[in-house]
Amino acid sequence: MLNYNKFAVVALAAFVAFQAPVRAQDKPDPVVAKVGDVDILQSELDLAVANLDPQLGQLPDDQKKVAALSAAIDVKLLAKDAAAEKLDQQPEFKKRMQYLADRELHNAYFKKYVVDTITDADVKARYDKEVAALPKQEEVRARHILVKTEAEAQDVIKQLDAGKNFADLAKEKSTDPNKADGGDLGYFTKGRMVKEFEDAAFALEKGTYTKTPIKTDFGYHVILVEDKRDSAPPPYDQVKDQVRQLVMRDKYLALLATAKEKSKIDITDEALRKGYEDANKKPQPGEEPAAPAQQ
């Protein structure tokens, strides 16, 4: 069952799944081919390129244009014959054309009042808001020495107590593949390591090491915590596209809400009505609808 979160994604996909290039009216739109007395314009070729089968998407640009032109010529050839048979007057054809026209009007309206209105400042402001709302999460930077037996681990601790350098001892004693880096594990948050290792690492003070061996399924560990800090949020440049999707989603939902206030929606099929109402339930406070995925 679709919920409100997923419904927002599905609805927006109608726009993001098809974004054909639009040729500005003041730019030339030359004829690139003729089929009988029918012209194929550059703008039509652009549309054909945009709508090529995804399997052809990896072709070089010149080959894509040839494939698109071939498809456009085929369309013109059979469209001419179909029109001669008055297939464009069939009720089913007219219904489909009306649906396609409505969809393209939806897309044009969405582009004008959502996509084209979003500024970089909007995206940055939303990023700052999301970052401010993130809960603080501690992370530690640690090194470890992994050995097979408890006795070996106890011997490592004795050598550390005697003043041996941790990184040097890791290079000498550890069986972990990162021994060449002195057992350096970098920074990590809770949930990244096995529980026994994690519990011991986060319980240590900065600059201290475990005084008893820590047993896990991998063997026995001696852990040194070199630093503790709050984890940094993802950099703006790394997530700005996802944040833009959040802004786009919110503007789209606001646009829909306004449109729904103007028109009564009456669904006669009971099962469809219930499904639609369930899918469009507003989220409770604290629940955020999912952002649309770019397609």
SSE arrangement:
Layout: H1 4-16, E1 31-35, E2 38-41, H2 42-50, H3 61-84, H4 91-113, H5 120-133, E3 138-147, H6 150-161, H7 166-173, E4 184-189, H8 195-203, E5 214-216, E6 219-230, H9 236-262, H10 270-279
Antiparallel strand pairs: 1-2, 3-4, 3-6, 5-6
Helix pairs in contact: 2-3, 5-9
Structure overview:
The chain has 295 residues and is of the alpha+beta class. The protein has a domain at 138-230: Chitinase A, domain 3. 51% of the residues lie in helices and 14% in strands. The chain has ten helices and six strands. It has a four-stranded antiparallel sheet with strand order 4-3-6-5. The chain has a two-stranded antiparallel ribbon with strand order 1-2. The longest helix has 27 residues, at 236-262. It is elongated and about 95 Å long. The relative contact order is 0.14. Residues 1-24 and 290-295 have low confidence and may be disordered.
